[in-house]
Amino acid sequence: SSERKARSRAPAYLTFDDIGGQDRAKRELVEALDFLIKHEEISKFGIRPLKGILLTGPPGTGKTLMAKAAAHYTNSAFVSASGSEFVEMYVGVGASRVRDLFKEARSRAAKDGKDSAIIFIDEIDVIGGKREGGQQREYDQTLNQLLTEMDGIHTADTPRILMVAATNRKEMLDSALLRPGRFDRHIDVDLPDKKGRLHILQLHARNKPVAPEANLERVAGETFGFSGAQLESVMNEAAIYAMRDARTEVDQQHFSLAIDKVMMGEKTDREATM
Ligand code: ATP
Fold it and tell me: Angle 39-40-46 (CA atoms, 0-180°, nearest 5)?
Protein backbone atom coordinates (compact mmCIF):
# COMPACT_ATOMS: atom_id res chain seq x y z
CA SER A 1 0.00 0.00 0.00
CA SER A 2 1.04 3.63 -0.26
CA GLU A 3 1.62 3.75 3.49
CA ARG A 4 4.10 0.91 3.30
CA LYS A 5 5.88 2.54 0.36
CA ALA A 6 6.12 5.81 2.27
CA ARG A 7 7.52 3.98 5.26
CA SER A 8 10.32 2.31 3.35
CA ARG A 9 11.27 5.49 1.50
CA ALA A 10 11.21 7.84 4.47
CA PRO A 11 14.31 8.69 6.50
CA ALA A 12 14.53 7.88 10.23
CA TYR A 13 12.71 11.09 11.02
CA LEU A 14 10.85 13.65 9.01
CA THR A 15 10.31 17.35 9.57
CA PHE A 16 7.80 19.88 8.29
CA ASP A 17 10.56 21.21 6.01
CA ASP A 18 10.49 17.90 4.15
CA ILE A 19 6.85 18.46 3.19
CA GLY A 20 6.25 20.54 0.08
CA GLY A 21 3.43 23.07 -0.19
CA GLN A 22 0.58 22.55 2.30
CA ASP A 23 1.45 25.82 4.05
CA ARG A 24 -2.00 26.26 5.57
CA ALA A 25 -2.28 22.64 6.70
CA LYS A 26 1.19 22.74 8.24
CA ARG A 27 0.38 25.98 10.05
CA GLU A 28 -2.88 24.60 11.44
CA LEU A 29 -1.19 21.42 12.57
CA VAL A 30 1.68 23.26 14.26
CA GLU A 31 -0.85 25.50 16.05
CA ALA A 32 -2.67 22.45 17.38
CA LEU A 33 0.60 20.82 18.44
CA ASP A 34 1.83 23.98 20.18
CA PHE A 35 -1.39 24.00 22.14
CA LEU A 36 -0.85 20.38 23.08
CA ILE A 37 2.66 21.07 24.34
CA LYS A 38 1.34 23.67 26.79
CA HIS A 39 -0.48 20.97 28.72
CA GLU A 40 0.19 22.43 32.16
CA GLU A 41 -1.39 25.76 31.24
CA ILE A 42 -4.24 23.94 29.58
CA SER A 43 -5.10 22.02 32.70
CA LYS A 44 -4.81 25.21 34.81
CA PHE A 45 -7.46 26.76 32.61
CA GLY A 46 -9.50 23.59 32.74
CA ILE A 47 -9.44 23.28 28.98
CA ARG A 48 -10.36 19.92 27.54
CA PRO A 49 -7.20 18.27 26.18
CA LEU A 50 -6.77 17.79 22.48
CA LYS A 51 -6.87 14.07 21.83
CA GLY A 52 -7.45 13.60 18.16
CA ILE A 53 -6.52 15.36 14.92
CA LEU A 54 -8.16 14.26 11.68
CA LEU A 55 -6.29 14.87 8.43
CA THR A 56 -8.61 14.82 5.46
CA GLY A 57 -7.92 14.97 1.75
CA PRO A 58 -7.18 12.96 -1.38
CA PRO A 59 -4.61 10.11 -1.42
CA GLY A 60 -0.92 10.90 -1.70
CA THR A 61 -1.07 14.50 -0.51
CA GLY A 62 1.24 13.99 2.47
CA LYS A 63 -1.03 13.07 5.39
CA THR A 64 1.34 10.36 6.56
CA LEU A 65 4.26 12.76 6.23
CA MET A 66 2.37 15.30 8.35
CA ALA A 67 1.79 12.75 11.12
CA LYS A 68 5.46 11.81 11.14
CA ALA A 69 6.58 15.44 11.17
CA ALA A 70 4.17 16.04 14.06
CA ALA A 71 5.91 13.29 16.03
CA HIS A 72 9.30 14.84 15.38
CA TYR A 73 8.06 18.34 16.23
CA THR A 74 6.61 17.26 19.58
CA ASN A 75 9.46 14.84 20.36
CA SER A 76 6.96 11.99 20.54
CA ALA A 77 7.25 8.30 19.90
CA PHE A 78 5.42 7.33 16.69
CA VAL A 79 3.37 4.24 15.99
CA SER A 80 1.11 3.73 13.01
CA ALA A 81 -1.44 1.38 11.55
CA SER A 82 -3.82 1.35 8.65
CA GLY A 83 -7.57 0.93 9.15
CA SER A 84 -7.57 -2.14 6.92
CA GLU A 85 -5.22 -3.94 9.34
CA PHE A 86 -8.08 -4.13 11.86
CA VAL A 87 -10.58 -5.81 9.61
CA GLU A 88 -10.59 -9.48 10.54
CA MET A 89 -12.79 -12.42 10.00
CA TYR A 90 -13.03 -13.20 13.70
CA VAL A 91 -14.97 -11.02 16.10
CA GLY A 92 -12.78 -9.39 18.70
CA VAL A 93 -9.49 -9.59 16.83
CA GLY A 94 -9.76 -6.02 15.57
CA ALA A 95 -10.55 -4.77 19.07
CA SER A 96 -7.56 -6.53 20.55
CA ARG A 97 -5.36 -5.06 17.82
CA VAL A 98 -6.54 -1.60 18.87
CA ARG A 99 -5.57 -2.38 22.47
CA ASP A 100 -2.18 -3.61 21.28
CA LEU A 101 -1.60 -0.44 19.31
CA PHE A 102 -2.11 1.71 22.40
CA LYS A 103 0.09 -0.63 24.43
CA GLU A 104 2.76 -0.42 21.77
CA ALA A 105 2.62 3.40 21.80
CA ARG A 106 3.09 3.47 25.59
CA SER A 107 5.95 0.99 25.60
CA ARG A 108 7.66 2.66 22.64
CA ALA A 109 7.58 6.01 24.43
CA ALA A 110 9.03 4.41 27.58
CA LYS A 111 11.76 2.71 25.57
CA ASP A 112 12.69 5.89 23.67
CA GLY A 113 12.54 8.00 26.85
CA LYS A 114 9.78 10.24 25.45
CA ASP A 115 6.91 11.64 27.47
CA SER A 116 4.45 11.62 24.60
CA ALA A 117 3.41 9.35 21.77
CA ILE A 118 1.52 9.86 18.53
CA ILE A 119 -0.66 7.05 17.24
CA PHE A 120 -1.35 7.44 13.53
CA ILE A 121 -4.21 5.54 11.89
CA ASP A 122 -4.39 5.82 8.11
CA GLU A 123 -7.70 5.00 6.35
CA ILE A 124 -9.66 5.48 9.59
CA ASP A 125 -12.89 5.23 7.56
CA VAL A 126 -12.33 1.47 7.24
CA ILE A 127 -12.99 0.99 10.98
CA GLY A 128 -14.82 4.23 11.67
CA GLY A 129 -17.49 4.13 8.99
CA LYS A 130 -21.05 5.09 9.85
CA ARG A 131 -22.93 2.50 11.91
CA GLU A 132 -26.27 2.52 10.21
CA GLY A 133 -29.60 1.68 11.82
CA GLY A 134 -28.50 -0.89 14.34
CA GLN A 135 -26.84 -2.93 11.65
CA GLN A 136 -24.33 -5.19 13.39
CA ARG A 137 -21.01 -5.34 11.72
CA GLU A 138 -18.10 -7.44 12.81
CA TYR A 139 -15.89 -4.40 13.25
CA ASP A 140 -18.24 -2.40 15.47
CA GLN A 141 -16.24 -3.81 18.36
CA THR A 142 -13.10 -2.39 16.82
CA LEU A 143 -14.56 1.09 16.62
CA ASN A 144 -15.94 0.81 20.15
CA GLN A 145 -12.54 -0.23 21.43
CA LEU A 146 -10.96 2.77 19.72
CA LEU A 147 -13.50 5.10 21.33
CA THR A 148 -12.92 3.50 24.73
CA GLU A 149 -9.16 3.92 24.41
CA MET A 150 -9.56 7.55 23.37
CA ASP A 151 -11.87 8.26 26.28
CA GLY A 152 -9.21 6.79 28.54
CA ILE A 153 -6.59 9.35 27.46
CA HIS A 154 -5.87 11.93 30.18
CA THR A 155 -3.63 14.98 29.99
CA ALA A 156 -1.87 14.10 33.23
CA ASP A 157 -0.86 10.65 31.97
CA THR A 158 2.66 9.73 30.93
CA PRO A 159 3.13 9.27 28.10
CA ARG A 160 0.59 11.73 26.78
CA ILE A 161 -1.15 10.16 23.79
CA LEU A 162 -2.22 12.08 20.71
CA MET A 163 -4.21 10.38 18.01
CA VAL A 164 -3.80 11.43 14.41
CA ALA A 165 -6.00 9.82 11.78
CA ALA A 166 -6.28 10.23 8.04
CA THR A 167 -9.12 9.70 5.62
CA ASN A 168 -10.16 10.74 2.14
CA ARG A 169 -13.80 10.04 3.00
CA LYS A 170 -14.63 12.28 5.91
CA GLU A 171 -18.37 12.17 5.18
CA MET A 172 -18.32 8.40 5.74
CA LEU A 173 -17.14 8.65 9.35
CA ASP A 174 -19.38 7.73 12.25
CA SER A 175 -20.34 10.82 14.21
CA ALA A 176 -19.15 9.17 17.45
CA LEU A 177 -15.59 9.56 16.18
CA LEU A 178 -16.01 13.27 15.54
CA ARG A 179 -17.51 14.21 18.89
CA PRO A 180 -15.72 16.69 21.18
CA GLY A 181 -12.87 14.96 22.96
CA ARG A 182 -12.32 12.62 20.05
CA PHE A 183 -11.31 13.62 16.51
CA ASP A 184 -12.57 17.15 16.94
CA ARG A 185 -9.77 19.02 15.14
CA HIS A 186 -9.88 18.66 11.34
CA ILE A 187 -7.19 19.73 8.95
CA ASP A 188 -7.62 19.63 5.17
CA VAL A 189 -4.65 18.36 3.22
CA ASP A 190 -5.60 19.26 -0.32
CA LEU A 191 -3.99 18.73 -3.71
CA PRO A 192 -1.13 21.20 -4.06
CA ASP A 193 -1.45 24.40 -6.11
CA LYS A 194 1.26 25.36 -8.61
CA LYS A 195 3.52 26.88 -5.97
CA GLY A 196 3.08 23.81 -3.79
CA ARG A 197 3.82 21.51 -6.72
CA LEU A 198 7.04 23.37 -7.46
CA HIS A 199 8.10 23.07 -3.83
CA ILE A 200 7.37 19.33 -3.81
CA LEU A 201 9.31 18.85 -7.08
CA GLN A 202 12.26 20.77 -5.64
CA LEU A 203 12.29 18.60 -2.52
CA HIS A 204 12.33 15.42 -4.59
CA ALA A 205 15.01 16.84 -6.91
CA ARG A 206 17.43 17.21 -3.98
CA ASN A 207 19.16 13.88 -4.64
CA LYS A 208 18.98 13.99 -8.46
CA PRO A 209 21.24 15.53 -11.11
CA VAL A 210 18.68 17.87 -12.67
CA ALA A 211 20.06 19.82 -15.66
CA PRO A 212 20.42 23.55 -14.89
CA GLU A 213 18.35 24.41 -17.98
CA ALA A 214 15.47 22.13 -16.94
CA ASN A 215 12.53 24.23 -15.83
CA LEU A 216 10.78 22.80 -12.78
CA GLU A 217 8.34 25.69 -12.80
CA ARG A 218 7.16 24.51 -16.19
CA VAL A 219 6.82 20.97 -14.82
CA ALA A 220 4.73 22.39 -11.95
CA GLY A 221 2.59 24.22 -14.51
CA GLU A 222 1.98 21.05 -16.51
CA THR A 223 0.99 18.87 -13.54
CA PHE A 224 -2.31 20.46 -12.50
CA GLY A 225 -4.25 18.06 -10.28
CA PHE A 226 -1.23 15.91 -9.41
CA SER A 227 -0.75 14.83 -5.80
CA GLY A 228 2.58 14.93 -3.98
CA ALA A 229 2.91 11.19 -4.49
CA GLN A 230 2.40 11.63 -8.26
CA LEU A 231 4.95 14.44 -8.36
CA GLU A 232 7.42 12.19 -6.58
CA SER A 233 6.74 9.64 -9.33
CA VAL A 234 7.32 12.26 -12.05
CA MET A 235 10.75 13.01 -10.55
CA ASN A 236 11.60 9.35 -10.26
CA GLU A 237 10.40 8.44 -13.78
CA ALA A 238 12.25 11.40 -15.29
CA ALA A 239 15.46 10.18 -13.67
CA ILE A 240 14.83 6.68 -15.07
CA TYR A 241 14.37 8.12 -18.59
CA ALA A 242 17.62 10.08 -18.22
CA MET A 243 19.48 7.01 -17.08
CA ARG A 244 18.11 4.93 -19.96
CA ASP A 245 19.23 7.65 -22.36
CA ALA A 246 22.72 7.29 -20.90
CA ARG A 247 22.64 10.98 -19.89
CA THR A 248 24.35 12.46 -16.87
CA GLU A 249 21.49 14.87 -16.15
CA VAL A 250 17.70 14.88 -16.12
CA ASP A 251 16.42 17.38 -18.70
CA GLN A 252 13.08 18.85 -19.80
CA GLN A 253 12.41 16.10 -22.33
CA HIS A 254 12.66 13.47 -19.58
CA PHE A 255 10.19 15.43 -17.47
CA SER A 256 7.69 15.64 -20.35
CA LEU A 257 7.87 11.87 -20.87
CA ALA A 258 7.55 11.29 -17.13
CA ILE A 259 4.46 13.52 -16.84
CA ASP A 260 2.79 11.54 -19.66
CA LYS A 261 3.74 8.27 -18.08
CA VAL A 262 2.35 9.18 -14.64
CA MET A 263 -0.83 10.55 -16.23
CA MET A 264 -1.30 7.37 -18.31
CA GLY A 265 -0.57 5.18 -15.32
CA GLU A 266 -3.36 6.88 -13.41
CA LYS A 267 -5.74 6.30 -16.30
CA THR A 268 -4.97 2.57 -16.50
CA ASP A 269 -5.33 2.28 -12.71
CA ARG A 270 -8.75 3.84 -12.92
CA GLU A 271 -9.80 1.66 -15.88
CA ALA A 272 -8.64 -1.40 -14.01
CA THR A 273 -10.92 -0.64 -11.07
CA MET A 274 -13.91 0.10 -13.27
P1 ATP B 1 -2.53 8.01 1.45
O2 ATP B 1 -3.80 8.55 1.95
O3 ATP B 1 -2.61 7.40 0.06
O4 ATP B 1 -1.77 7.16 2.43
P5 ATP B 1 -1.00 10.32 2.15
O6 ATP B 1 -1.73 11.58 2.04
O7 ATP B 1 -0.78 9.72 3.49
O8 ATP B 1 -1.63 9.27 1.17
P9 ATP B 1 1.82 10.19 1.97
O10 ATP B 1 1.90 8.72 2.25
O11 ATP B 1 2.18 11.10 3.04
O12 ATP B 1 0.39 10.55 1.43
O13 ATP B 1 2.67 10.51 0.67
C14 ATP B 1 3.14 9.50 -0.19
C15 ATP B 1 4.48 9.92 -0.78
O16 ATP B 1 4.25 11.00 -1.71
C17 ATP B 1 5.43 10.49 0.24
O18 ATP B 1 6.26 9.49 0.79
C19 ATP B 1 6.23 11.50 -0.59
O20 ATP B 1 7.25 10.86 -1.31
C21 ATP B 1 5.22 12.00 -1.58
N22 ATP B 1 4.54 13.23 -1.10
C23 ATP B 1 3.20 13.38 -0.91
N24 ATP B 1 2.90 14.62 -0.52
C25 ATP B 1 4.07 15.28 -0.43
C26 ATP B 1 4.43 16.61 -0.06
N27 ATP B 1 3.50 17.50 0.30
N28 ATP B 1 5.74 16.93 -0.07
C29 ATP B 1 6.67 16.04 -0.44
N30 ATP B 1 6.41 14.79 -0.81
C31 ATP B 1 5.13 14.39 -0.81
Answer: 85
